[in-house]
Design goal:
mainly alpha; 8 helices; binds heme C
Length: 173
């Protein structure tokens, strides 16, 4: 059945839809071109470094259980041993990852733990307990992509017990 629009309002409606479709097509093309162009921007991720004795795990003889939690849930952003996933090569995801890794390493770098002074260590451990208990760390956006990094209640508990005893150890040294 042919539908013809003799009514002028319908005519303009049809014209509007036509223009909107065209505009959407061009927006799509422009977004695609922008997506391709940003792939050529340099990634400039912070570089990984070899493990030294300043790493918290060797520095404090951290148990395998705790070491495994830290490595699985924190080390991608808080150490010099980041494992970059395949999508880290894709912009704009790469921009977000770079930002989180740089900021994370800047705030707390487990690989450089041995270089922190006593006050800093206590402060970081205290923050660490708070952030993990409140579910703020690891960052939710991270556990969305790394399900196994999400801390269980018992892991949070383990982290808290460990951090508290390490604080006492550091103070009494
Ligand atoms: C996806 C990256 C990422 C992961 C994974 C991650 N963090 Fe963070 N963390 C950050 C960023 C970014 C900041 C700084 C901004 C903020 O506080 O939200 C931060 C801040 C912190 C701070 C605050 C430091 C300070 O001195 O104020 C602590 C403590 C911390 N993280 C502990 C952890 C622990 C413990 C884990 C693992 C259980 C973890 N984070 C996992 C990115 C991450």
């Amino acid at each position: 059945m042919m539908v013809s629009f003799r009514n002028p309002i319908l005519k303009t409606k049809r014209a509007k839809i036509f223009i909107m479709k065209k505009a959407l097509k061009w927006i799509g093309i422009i977004l695609l071109i922008a997506f391709i162009i940003i792939q050529f921007f340099p990634k400039n991720y912070p570089e990984n470094q070899p493990v030294t004795e300043n790493d918290i795990i060797t520095h404090h003889n951290v148990s395998d259980d705790i070491a495994s939690i830290l490595k699985t849930s924190c080390y991608d952003c808080h150490s010099n041993q980041t494992t970059y996933p395949w999508y880290s090569k894709i912009a704009p995801v790469s921009f977000l990852l770079k930002h989180d890794i740089e900021e994370g390493r800047g705030e707390l770098n487990f690989s450089e733990w041995g270089t922190y002074d006593v006050m800093d260590k206590i402060d970081k451990l205290d923050e660490l307990v708070e952030e993990t208990q409140e579910g703020k760390m690891p960052l939710p956006i991270y556990t969305f992509m790394h399900g196994h990094a999400k801390l269980s209640d018992s892991q949070k508990e383990q982290i808290e017990v460990w951090a508290n005893s390490l604080m006492e150890e550091i103070i009494s040294e």
